[in-house]
């Protein structure tokens, strides 16, 4: 299957790193409201800009007069990010990169990005959420996730349900066919020994990695 990659620019924190540049290379781009401020540092021009524009000031709007804008009322029934994702899917996206999905001043939006991403993975999409410094990879039951991480970098597996059949390979604290109770912190702060692989029989989870944090080396 041909991979059609879209980067969704969101309003959270974003630090431009080599991993971020490699992740978003050759990707089409859609901006969600104030996420447009990341376009300049990524040196990209989105093909579409959506939202109610309550977090985009006049200077930002004036900087991109040629980008197609779709305005939505503030009382809409979806976040600007969710609207941007729907537009990307309508344009053929199979892989979605949520840039600016982590950090920032709105924890509710971050949690919603996690939940939206898990739903998208269940529907067969490949999804990565990133701030440049942190990367999140949602995965669901009967799936295998492989993540390229430097040796000594930190990562955690966050269970959004009880996890059964959880196997973590190439980590300082490996697991095999493990049952992780919902809410358990057992899989927080693991250390990569290089590329990490995770498999899961049942449940929904997110691997949250800090590839530039080598404090565990």
From TrEMBL:
Q: Which InterPro entries match?
A: Thi_PPkinase, Thiamin_PyroPKinase_B1-bd, TPK, TPK_catalytic, TPK_catalytic_sf
Domain Thiamin pyrophosphokinase thiamin-binding intervals? 141-206
Say if the entry is tagged with keyword Kinase.
yes
Q: Which organism is it from?
A: Peteryoungia ipomoeae
Question: Which terms under GO biological process does the entry name?
Answer: thiamine diphosphate biosynthetic process; thiamine metabolic process
Q: Which Gene3D superfamilies match?
A: Thiamin pyrophosphokinase, catalytic domain (3.40.50.10240)
Q: By its UniProt entry, which NCBIfam families does this protein fall under?
A: thi_PPkinase
Instruction: Give the matching Pfam families.
Output: TPK_B1_binding, TPK_catalytic
What SMART domains does this protein's entry cite?
TPK_B1_binding
What's the protein name? Answer: Thiamine diphosphokinase
Keywords associated with the record: ATP-binding, Kinase, Nucleotide-binding, Transferase
Molecular function per GO: ATP binding; kinase activity; thiamine binding; thiamine diphosphokinase activity
Q: Which EC class heads this enzyme's classification?
A: transferase
Q: What is its EC number?
A: 2.7.6.2
Please tell me whether the keyword Transferase is annotated for this protein.
yes
């Amino acid at each position: 299957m041909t991979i059609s990659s879209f980067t969704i620019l969101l309003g959270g924190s974003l630090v431009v790193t080599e991993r971020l540049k490699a992740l978003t290379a050759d990707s089409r781009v859609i901006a969600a409201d104030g996420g447009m401020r990341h376009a300049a540092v990524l040196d990209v021009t989105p093909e579409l800009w959506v939202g109610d524009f309550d977090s985009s000031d006049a200077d930002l709007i004036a900087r991109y007069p040629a980008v197609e804008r779709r305005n939505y009322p503030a009382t809409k029934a979806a976040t600007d990010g969710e609207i941007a994702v729907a537009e990307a899917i309508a344009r053929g996206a199979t892989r979605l990169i949520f840039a600016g999905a982590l950090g920032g001043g709105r924890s509710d939006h971050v949690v919603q990005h996690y939940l939206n991403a898990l739903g998208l993975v269940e529907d067969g999409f490949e999804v990565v959420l990133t701030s440049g410094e942190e990367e999140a990879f949602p995965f669901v039951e009967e799936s295998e996730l492989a993540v390229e991480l430097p040796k000594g970098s930190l990562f955690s597996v966050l269970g959004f349900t009880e996890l059964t059949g959880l196997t973590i390979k190439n980590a300082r604290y490996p697991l095999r066919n493990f049952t992780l109770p919902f809410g358990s912190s057992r899989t927080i702060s693991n250390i990569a020994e290089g590329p990490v692989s995770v498999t899961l029989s049942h449940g929904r989870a997110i691997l949250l990695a800090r590839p530039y944090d080598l404090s565990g080396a």
